[in-house]
Amino acid sequence: MRYVAVKVDMVSSRLLQQRGEVQRRFLDIAGEINDRFGEHLVAEFVVTHGDEAQVLLPPSQAPWVFRVCEYVSLALAEVEFRFGVGFGTLSTELQPISIGMDGEAWQNAEVALTRAKRKRLHIAFCGFGRESDLQLEALGNLLCHLQARWTPEQMETIRLQSRLGKQVEVAAALGISKAAVSKRLTAAGWHHYSRGRVALERLLLQAVESLDKTYEG
After folding, report:
1. Measured between alpha carbons, how far is 161 from 165 in angstroms, rounded to an integer?
2. Which of 27, 75, 153, 177 lies 20 to 30 A from 13 at CA?
3. pLDDT by residue (tens digit) across 30-45?
4. In this predicted model, what pLDDT tens digit does every residue of 2-59 receive, in sequence order?
């Protein structure tokens, strides 16, 4: 069986003025991700070093990869992250936590992360097929580029919109009007972003399903 592995790297973490606090928050985020996305993970999200983390998903849950990366970026918006996403087999036994494993999936994730660092990308992909890797990378980085330009107010609104789903509930949570919520989302390009995210998720699933058919055949 093949898996989707994700490696996360915090950019220039040693230069952060409050590095210790950021690292503690990163650990908290790991727990939040496991609570929120646990049903989609095959091995839990874990911080392997103070500024690095990784997670493993089954192929059927590949569309959730970007949501996990997005959660990290939004939860620690003051820090820049790079993500390497790889697809492939394991050469070791599957573990409940994303550590102590090796194989093609993790090697491809490392290749992707290295490329992201070298080319200064937000996210890179490896192992999904040459054309799919390029398409996923192009769309993923467009989404991350847009995301990085959200204001704190827009980001807070989008977090709530993603969780609650209805603008009237978001307005109640923020103590503002529904019209004000709509204005923030429009200014952030949220509707374009959310459609692009769906497209990325579909591309991921199509790539994985296509490769799995070839693998099984």
Report:
1. 5
2. 153
3. 999 999 999 999 999 9
4. 999 999 999 877 767 787 888 899 999 999 999 999 999 999 999 998 789 999 999 9
Q: How far apart are CA 96 and CA 74, in angstroms?
A: 26
* Max Cα distance, the chain (Å): 56
The amino acid present at 28, given as its one-letter code, is D
Q: What is the pTM of this model?
A: 0.92
> What number of CA atoms fall less than 13 Å from residue 47's CA on the CB side?
17
- Residue 47, beta-bridge partner list: 53
Select from 5, 17, 49 the least CA-distant residue to 30. Answer: 49
The domain at 2-216 falls in which architecture? Answer: 2-Layer Sandwich (3.30)
β-strand partners of 84: 7, 124
Listed by start position, the domains of the chain span 2-216
Count the helices and strands in the chain (H runs, E runs): 8, 5
SS3 (DSSP) at 78:
coil
